[in-house]
């Protein structure tokens, strides 16, 4: 009686456990994507949640091998073979697996394969899974982005206090360090003292979540200047706390040095342009004085020319007067002949009259001689004034031509000043 009661109790407990296991399996099947396989990998059961992920109908899956849900190239790998070897050996497997949907698209499953053991042997293989295709795509994009950044940029990781965690090869090559020479060292190793004097709260701000970006001058292993276009990016954990700082940087040293050289050249060009403006301004002052002097010379030459014209007119008047005097002298000489003749006829009585007539005749002769000399002098003076007139005319022409040339030079200097000012303004705008 006792043994019958004990057996009945054990049977009841066994039934209860089986019911509990059945309920547990039913709960799993109703809540998560679930599929059952034979140890050989043939599908014996699949729930609707799993079918929704892969896009198959139930009859398209039941009785098919697990490989029907995989890409052919994956089935041929050693990893796929070892998966089922482990499962048949009672070893569970979990991880992220790529599978093929009915449409041929790749789907990613976060899954666990676990053998179901009966009497120490694998009776079935169960798989529970979740669709992580979107997460995997995001992860792949992130990984691709990080790989691209790691390939193209200098990357270095810091603790929130500025201590170096690690750095990529681009950074190490740029600064001339080996990894072991920077890990555990502080960021100030790469900076000149002036940087922290100007930015004493640099790491405090980063630790508070602020992003730092811009152009930074740093020092390489040999003390050489390295110019970086960089961003310091705080990384937060799930609690919103900054756990590290990632710096992404591009080495633009060559570009900055060229810019500095260009700025220095621009400053020199600006100085030269300013000197050119000053020199041209002085030249303009000289030309203005030359123009003023040339104008005075031209005025004076014109005045001299007028005076010479008046002198020529006076000479002509004198010639006319001399001509009159000469005529009078000739007439006097003729008139003096008659008294001389009459005195000769009168004999002794006319001697005194003859002397007077002779004196008059001699006076007329001297007057005629003097007038001839005056005429000769006036003619000579006329020739001189004529030559002076010609010379003054030439000088006047040259003075006018010189003034015209000076005006042209003044215009050229004005253009030089304007161009130099334009160059100076342009260079100043370039050097800002």
From TrEMBL:
<dbReference type="InterPro" id="IPR013656">
    <property type="entry name" value="PAS_4"/>
</dbReference>
<feature type="domain" description="PAC">
    <location>
        <begin position="209"/>
        <end position="264"/>
    </location>
</feature>
<dbReference type="InterPro" id="IPR035965">
    <property type="entry name" value="PAS-like_dom_sf"/>
</dbReference>
<dbReference type="InterPro" id="IPR000014">
    <property type="entry name" value="PAS"/>
</dbReference>
<keyword id="KW-0807">Transducer</keyword>
<dbReference type="Pfam" id="PF00015">
    <property type="entry name" value="MCPsignal"/>
</dbReference>
<dbReference type="InterPro" id="IPR050903">
    <property type="entry name" value="Bact_Chemotaxis_MeTrfase"/>
</dbReference>
<protein>
    <submittedName>
        <fullName>PAS domain S-box protein</fullName>
    </submittedName>
</protein>
<dbReference type="GO" id="GO:0007165">
    <property type="term" value="P:signal transduction"/>
</dbReference>
<feature type="domain" description="PAS">
    <location>
        <begin position="138"/>
        <end position="194"/>
    </location>
</feature>
<dbReference type="InterPro" id="IPR001610">
    <property type="entry name" value="PAC"/>
</dbReference>
<dbReference type="InterPro" id="IPR004090">
    <property type="entry name" value="Chemotax_Me-accpt_rcpt"/>
</dbReference>
<dbReference type="InterPro" id="IPR004089">
    <property type="entry name" value="MCPsignal_dom"/>
</dbReference>
<dbReference type="GO" id="GO:0004888">
    <property type="term" value="F:transmembrane signaling receptor activity"/>
</dbReference>
<dbReference type="InterPro" id="IPR013655">
    <property type="entry name" value="PAS_fold_3"/>
</dbReference>
<dbReference type="GO" id="GO:0016020">
    <property type="term" value="C:membrane"/>
</dbReference>
<dbReference type="InterPro" id="IPR000700">
    <property type="entry name" value="PAS-assoc_C"/>
</dbReference>
<dbReference type="GO" id="GO:0006935">
    <property type="term" value="P:chemotaxis"/>
</dbReference>
<feature type="domain" description="Methyl-accepting transducer">
    <location>
        <begin position="244"/>
        <end position="432"/>
    </location>
</feature>
<feature type="domain" description="PAS">
    <location>
        <begin position="33"/>
        <end position="94"/>
    </location>
</feature>
<dbReference type="Pfam" id="PF08448">
    <property type="entry name" value="PAS_4"/>
</dbReference>
<dbReference type="Pfam" id="PF08447">
    <property type="entry name" value="PAS_3"/>
</dbReference>
């Amino acid at each position: 009686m006792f043994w019958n009661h004990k057996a009945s109790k054990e049977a009841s407990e066994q039934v209860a456990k089986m019911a509990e296991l059945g309920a547990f399996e039913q709960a799993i099947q109703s809540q998560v994507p679930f599929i059952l396989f034979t140890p050989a990998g043939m599908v014996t059961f699949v729930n609707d949640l799993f079918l929704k992920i892969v896009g198959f109908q139930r009859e398209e899956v039941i009785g098919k091998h697990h490989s029907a849900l995989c890409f052919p190239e994956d089935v041929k790998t050693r990893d796929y073979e070892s998966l089922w070897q482990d499962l048949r050996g009672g070893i569970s497997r979990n991880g992220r697996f790529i599978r093929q949907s009915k449409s041929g698209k790749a789907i990613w499953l976060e899954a666990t394969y676990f053998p179901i053991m009966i009497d120490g042997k694998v009776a079935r293989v169960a798989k529970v899974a979740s669709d992580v295709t979107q997460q995997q795509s995001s992860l792949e994009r992130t990984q691709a982005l990080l790989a691209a950044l790691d390939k193209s940029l200098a990357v270095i990781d810091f603790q929130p206090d500025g201590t170096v965690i690690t750095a990529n090869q681009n950074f190490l090559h740029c600064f001339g360090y080996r990894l072991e020479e920077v890990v555990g060292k502080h960021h100030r190793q790469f900076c000149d003292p002036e940087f922290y004097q100007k930015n004493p709260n640099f790491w405090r701000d980063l630790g508070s979540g602020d992003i730092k970006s811009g152009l930074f001058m740093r020092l390489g292993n040999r003390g050489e200047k390295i110019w970086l276009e960089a961003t310091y990016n705080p990384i937060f954990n799930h609690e919103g706390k900054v756990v590290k700082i990632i710096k992404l940087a591009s080495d633009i040293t060559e570009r900055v040095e060229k810019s500095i050289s260009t700025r220095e050249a621009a400053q020199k060009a600006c100085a030269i342009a300013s000197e050119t403006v000053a020199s041209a301004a002085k030249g303009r002052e000289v030309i203005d004085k030359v123009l003023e002097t040339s104008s005075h010379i031209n005025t004076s030459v014109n005045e001299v020319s007028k005076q010479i014209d008046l002198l020529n007119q006076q000479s002509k008047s004198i010639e006319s007067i001399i001509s009159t005097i000469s005529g009078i002298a000739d007439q006097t000489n003729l008139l003096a002949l008659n008294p001389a003749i009459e005195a000769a006829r009168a004999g002794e009585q006319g001697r005194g009259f003859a002397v007077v007539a002779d004196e008059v005749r001699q006076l007329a002769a001297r007057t005629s001689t003097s007038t001839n000399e005056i005429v000769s002098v006036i003619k000579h003076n006329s020739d001189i004034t004529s030559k002076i007139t010609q010379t003054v005319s030439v000088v006047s022409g040259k003075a006018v031509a010189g003034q015209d040339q000076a005006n042209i030079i003044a215009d050229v200097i004005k253009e030089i000043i304007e161009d130099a000012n334009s160059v100076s303004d342009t260079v100043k705008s370039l050097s800002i």
